[in-house]
Each structure stands twice: as structure tokens, then as C-alpha cells.
Amino acid sequence: MTGLLDFSSRVIDSGVADAPVNRVTQELSELREDLAIVESFSHSVVVDSGEGLIAFDTSAGNTGRAVVDEIARWRPQPVTHLMYTHGHADHVGGSREFAARWESPVVVGHSNVAHRFDRYEHTNNWNLDINLRQFGGIRADLNLGLVTDDDDPANDFAPASS
Q1: Strand partners, 45
Q2: pLDDT-above-70 percentage for the chain
């Protein structure tokens, strides 16, 4: 697959997007020595602060492990902080995998993120119905439900207070 920076330069320079520009490759590209991105369902950007790794978003529940694996191959340091750009499940659903790999990363997000997670728990079946209408359905094997079978959103998202 074409390198991310080469691909991006080609699209910008030519003005032609001759391939999907929002790629879901589960591959990490180093953008500079201390900065990388994993192209996933929702991308995860990682900064090496010199004292640990800071991940901006964790991708979705079904892609979190692949994102974590790519980051761990890139750097041996632990992810010490998770920065939630916003509380959508496709951006924070991989948090469980980050917490399983690296002990207690500090989570930074908007003060209302915890309320959003509560709403996900209470509206999970409604969201599945909405996705069915909006996207023609989501296959169960993709694990894109908002909460797990135990209906505890804490098992899907790192708590905002951690």
C-alpha cells in the first residue's frame, strides 16, 4: 500500500483522489520522529512525549486491538494518556484494548463525555435501529454495537474520571 504521506501529497498536488482518502488499513504511518497515525475506522494519532505516548482517540470497539498492536510495534513505551476528541463510540470504543495493554492511562475528554456514555447505555437498542435505517444495518460480527452484552458501558469506554 502506498505510504500515507506519499498518497496525501499525490492527492493534494494533483487535485485528484484516485483512491479512497479515508483509508481503513489498520496500519501505522510515522509522520515524523515523534508523531504517528493509525488509519482505522476512526484514526488514532499518537505522540511520543518522551515520557510516554499520548493517543488521540482509540478507534472503535472492533478495531481497538489492531490500533493498540500497531502502536506497540511502533514504540515500546506505554500509552499514558488517552485524549478523546469527542465521545462518539467510533472514536473511543477501542479504549478497553488500550486499558488492557497499558495500565491505567489517564483519560482526558470533555466533561459531558460521561453523560454521553450513559446515554449510549440507555439508547443502545435505539441506536441499532437508527443505524439499520441509516446505513442498511450493521452486521453483528463487526462488533459495532455501542455497549457489550453485559450492557455496562464502562466495559467499552475508559471512564472519564480515570
Answers
A1: 37, 56
A2: 80
pLDDT of residue 132: 73
Q: Is residue 16 part of a domain?
A: no
Q: What pLDDT digit, counting tens, does each position of 55-113 carry?
A: 999 998 889 999 999 999 999 999 999 999 988 888 898 999 999 999 889 999 888 88
Report the first-to-last Cα separation within the chain, whole angstroms.
37
Residue 130 forms part of a structural domain: yes
Q: Which domain holds residue 112?
A: 24-155
Residue 58 has which C-alpha cell? Answer: 482509540
Burial of 158 (0-12, 13-18, 19+ CB in 10 A): buried
Per the structure, the count of domains in the chain is: 1
CATH number at residue 119: 3.60.15.10
